[in-house]
Amino acid sequence: MGEPQSSHYWYADDRTRRSVAVLDALREYRAAESAMRRRTRSAMRMGETDLLAIRFLLKERSAGRMVSPKDIAAHLGISTASTTVLLDRLVRSGHVARRPHPTDRRGLVIEATIDSDEEVRATLGDMHRRMIDVAESLAPTEAAAVIGFLERMREAVDSVPKPDEATVGAAAAADAAVRSGADAAGRA
Fold first, then answer.
1. How many CB atoms lie within 10 A of CB 67?
2. 19 in a structural domain
3. pLDDT in tens, 90-100
């Protein structure tokens, strides 16, 4: 397809233009993937977290692992209360089932239902096949280059530090002060 059209004409050297073109292509892929995920959620009538939970359950089941509500909370990075609400919703919709843990009488195992598995396969199967076809079309050296690039990009993104609570709290306080100052100026 060639280099994507972009407004990076002002970059002087070919290496920088090529790098910007790669990043533009990556952004375009991410935008297309986000749009596909929105369409998938809409087709399945569920939210992002619901779909992520089901995909996690299906992946863990295929690996032969049992999943507890705590595992789901950790995977999604949500509270136990949010996990309970999520699971209640998915049980009501017929996508997951709660089962007693086979060895811990107090514990629960969460499983995606057969219908849920079939719905995900029907909704995502063709898209996954097309993606596999593209990946299989790569020569071994191309595949190694893509994998290496994506791993380094993940590392670059993961290295961005999380804001600490003091920074987040100070920013929120500053925003509140600006808003209250604007409110006071508006009343004057």
1. 20
2. yes
3. 999 889 999 99
